[in-house]
Design goal:
Length: 468
């Protein structure tokens, strides 16, 4: 499955043609580029990236810098080295510049996305869909199988750019690199459910003292990110590291009572593993086995270190049966798909390759479900909940049968704000649905909103669903 140099050259030519054809139509591209360069220059002049941000992250993560060693780095044995002092600062500086640029254009971007139908419809005149009666226990439960939505005290998110909110309000390629973390479906808590439907904003209705969600559109290293530590480009092999970051932040945050508080962590990784590794790895099945090891290591550490924890595990979607079904997409989307997920969307691959890719997705998802259901990870104060919303998601379609691109950002890959709201709604529904009855349909927000009932007041686990 490894691509040789001549194959790569053949593959790049049409991609470049698409990019040039697209950028030639973008009248403001030169202005945007100049603005970005000016922002970078100003950031440097003002000390835009300060060492204390990286030091804060390292302190929270319990990580020490090591001398650079190529073999150790390739094996994943070292995470931060003396070389990172310059390179990491440059990368973070660039990401912060993209974020500042998008923040400066916030009103313009929001209005632009509103006009294109990519913002959820406001529900200012309506009441919350669920009754709040009986949704919080009179006494703190001691068993995860008796956990109600209002019993969740702390919320967190681990994942890649989809969980970091990249490109949510995008209009151009520059905005795709901005992280709208405070509005992300699994870990953002800006505004409220009426205008910004996210899982934290839903749970805040049941427990107004909920803590841990991102309170602003910032980077993961910033304090306002709290426990939404999703990072663009994260893969399965990075899961253990992100778990270590999460644990250290929990332990050092004075607002968190490790023993008393119930915590909810949503994990959504694997998208980039398939997009980048499927056509580079000659032994795909060893990659699947390594993914299982990554999950086992991360979940074992969480179980043994973090009491009173519930984990939502969301599988990587089958790109072949979801995004692969997109038709009549704009040229920029074709360029992003071919480059950002080249192992699936490149035109150089035939039907045989796509069938292999689809099988790989299916096996990846099966590993997620298998590990999540292991008895070792279903204890009295720890549970992993496999949430299949994204596994073989049925995407919303328009009247002509095409996938509704309002749910996606300008690259037709990341979610728009409407898409994040729909994801939050679907994930919330999954949390209350018993295994075997969970939906995999992405809908308009609030079209179907599941609520706790007197008969089923608890977050659905493998054990408490047996009685229903």
């Amino acid at each position: 499955m490894t691509l040789h140099g001549n194959q790569l050259l053949r593959k790049r030519k049409p991609l470049l043609e698409v990019i040039f054809a697209t950028t030639s139509k973008m009248k403001s591209s030169a202005i945007l580029t100049q603005a970005l360069l000016l922002l970078l220059f100003c950031s440097i002049c003002k000390g835009g990236f300060k060492n204390r941000n990286l030091d804060y992250l390292l302190t929270k993560s319990g990580i020490r810098k090591a001398d650079f060693n190529l073999r150790a780095a390739n094996d994943g044995n070292i995470l931060v080295t003396n070389w990172d002092d310059g390179a990491r600062k440059l990368i973070v500086l660039a990401r912060r510049a993209f974020l500042k640029y998008s923040d400066h254009k916030w009103q313009h971007l929001y209005i632009n996305n509103w006009k294109r139908g990519k913002i959820q419809r406001s529900r200012l005149a309506r009441e919350f869909p669920c009754s709040l009666n009986g949704t919080k226990s009179a006494e703190i439960p001691t068993n995860v199988n008796s956990l109600r939505p209002g019993d969740i005290d702390v919320i967190a998110a681990i994942g890649d750019s989809l969980s970091a909110g990249n490109g949510m309000l995008s209009k151009t390629f520059i905005n795709l690199l901005a992280e709208f973390r405070g509005m992300a479906f699994s870990g953002g808590g800006m505004a409220d459910w009426r205008s910004t439907l996210t899982l934290p904003n839903i749970l805040k209705m049941f427990n107004p003292n909920l803590y841990g969600f991102a309170t602003a559109n910032v980077l993961a290293i910033d304090r306002e990110a709290h426990f939404n530590i999703a990072e663009p480009m994260i893969m399965s092999r990075d899961l253990l590291y992100q778990v270590q970051v999460f644990i250290q932040r929990l332990k050092t945050d004075p607002r968190v009572d490790m023993k008393r508080h119930w915590k909810l962590l949503t994990i959504f990784v694997g998208n980039l593993d398939v997009c980048f590794e499927l056509c580079r790895n000659s032994d795909l099945w060893s990659k699947l086995r390594q993914h299982e090891v990554d999950l086992l290591d991360a979940f074992t550490l969480l179980r043994d270190t973090v009491p009173r924890l519930v984990v939502n595990l969301m599988p990587a979607p089958n790109m072949v049966t979801t995004l692969g079904q997109m038709r009549n997409v704009p040229l920029p989307c074709q360029a992003v798909h071919s480059f950002g997920c080249r192992c699936v969307f490149s035109e150089s691959y035939n039907e045989t390759h796509l069938r292999l890719a689809s099988e790989y997705f299916t096996r990846w998802q099966a590993i997620d479900e298998y590990v999540a259901g292991l008895p070792a990870f279903q204890t009295d104060d720890f549970a992993i909940l496999y949430q299949p919303l994204t596994a073989n998601a049925i995407l919303p379609r328009m009247g002509n049968g095409d996938i509704d691109l309002r749910f996606f950002s300008s690259d037709c890959f990341h979610f728009s704000q409407l898409g994040h709201a729909a994801m939050a709604n679907g994930l919330w529904n999954n949390m209350l649905q018993a295994p075997g009855q969970k939906e995999s349909v992405i809908r308009e927000p609030f079209d179907w909103f599941v609520c706790p009932t007197a008969e089923r007041p608890f977050i659905a686990t493998l054990k408490n669903s047996i009685t229903y």
